[in-house]
Amino acid sequence: MAKVELKQPIVQAIAEDVKDATSVVLVDYRGLTVAEDTALRKELRDAGIIYKVCKNTMMKRAFEGTDFAQLDEHLEGPSAIAISKDDATAPARILCKFAKNAKALELKAGVIEGTVYDVDGLTELSKIPSREELLSKLLGSLQSPITNLARVLNQIAEQGGAENCEAAKEDAAEEAPAEEAAETTAE
């Protein structure tokens, strides 16, 4: 069997992985310990990200005709690829966070939703919260005024209604002299 025939299934597997991907990030993994590599793979797997170590020539062939062909110039030296089909910023976010503790891990470049980013761009993108975090912040912002109103109303009800509330007594005390003054001027 020729070497090309042996490599073709690998190229097809990479092409299938990047086919519907929203983002692909390349990293240089040299120098990672086995424990660090295992922890990185587990963290990426838990986030639904495909992580593979592949030959650069096979990645180049798999990227042909896709947005990810823009990564060809960065395919030098040992490369690993992180592919996400759901959360576009997840690979950059997880890899940048992991690279802070594992100094041997170096980001090379990435294509996120059709745009190529260098290391600095990936670092900036990694600061964007995940979709779930953004939705929870939005929900919290929407619920905050309603929650505060419910607390105030609950406190008023616990104190026996507006008549027993100190603020209501103060307002009533301020309005009483004003009403008396209005009555005396009207007479």
Kindly state the mean pLDDT as a whole number? 81
CATH-defined architecture of the largest domain: 2-Layer Sandwich
Largest sheet: 5 strands, antiparallel
The SS-based structural class is alpha+beta
The CATH class assignment of the largest domain is: Alpha Beta
Tell me the domain tally.
2
> Order of helices and strands, N to C?
HEHEHEHEEHHH
Give me the count of strands.
5
Detail the poorly predicted runs. Answer: none
- CATH-defined fold name of the largest domain: Alpha-Beta Plaits
How many helical stretches? 7
Helix content: 55-70%
Element layout with pairings:
Layout: H1 3-19, E1 23-28, H2 34-46, E2 50-54, H3 56-63, E3 79-84, H4 90-101, E4 106-112, E5 115-117, H5 119-125, H6 131-158, H7 166-186
Antiparallel strand pairs: 1-3, 1-4, 2-3, 4-5
Helix pairs in contact: 1-3
Biased composition (Acidic residues): 172-187
Function: Forms part of the ribosomal stalk, playing a central role in the interaction of the ribosome with GTP-bound translation factors.
Region (Disordered): 162-187
